[in-house]
Design brief:
Strand order of the largest sheet: 1-2
Structural class: mainly beta
Shape: rod-shaped
Radius of gyration: 10 Å
Order of helices and strands: EE
Largest sheet: 2 strands, antiparallel
Oligomer: single chain
Number of helices: 0
Length: 21
């Protein structure tokens, strides 16, 4: 299953997809 996490770097908002167990 994949989970989406919001991350802020250098004032840029993006979505990082990670594997959830």
């Amino acid at each position: 299953m994949w989970c989406g996490d919001y991350v802020d770097q250098d004032g840029i908002r993006g979505i990082v997809m990670e594997r959830c167990e």
